[in-house]
Design brief:
single chain, 106 residues, alpha+beta, 4-stranded antiparallel sheet, 2 helices
């Protein structure tokens, strides 16, 4: 089992998420992230998604994702890079610019 810990910022704050409904936005990111990780693991559990919208529009948005991946489908040294690529690729449609602050597999 791998614990997945990802922290992503959207520096420009431009996104397609409903800032007035944070729970719906978090559910959407949870679903997209889970689907993105399934090609890498037999089973994926998303433990938590937290999105922090700034008080002012145009300021950075922060996304924290914690998940668990069971039975990796690939045995590679850089699995964290694959996880980062899959998650950011899935979220690219929602965010103008993404900056990964942390992507770790523990």
């Amino acid at each position: 089992m791998s614990r997945i810990d990802v922290l992503i910022n959207c520096p420009e704050g431009r996104n397609e998420l409903p800032a007035d409904d944070v729970r719906s936005a978090e559910c959407l990111v949870e679903e997209l992230s889970g689907l993105a990780l399934l090609p890498l693991f037999e089973t994926v559990w998303i433990d938590d998604v937290t999105i922090t919208f700034p008080a002012q529009r145009g300021k950075p948005v922060s996304i924290a994702l914690r998940a668990q991946g069971f039975e990796p489908l690939y045995q590679v040294e850089n699995m964290d890079c694959l996880v980062e690529e899959r998650v950011t690729g899935a979220l690219a449609e929602l965010f103008d610019t993404l900056s990964v602050e942390r992507c770790a597999l523990i």
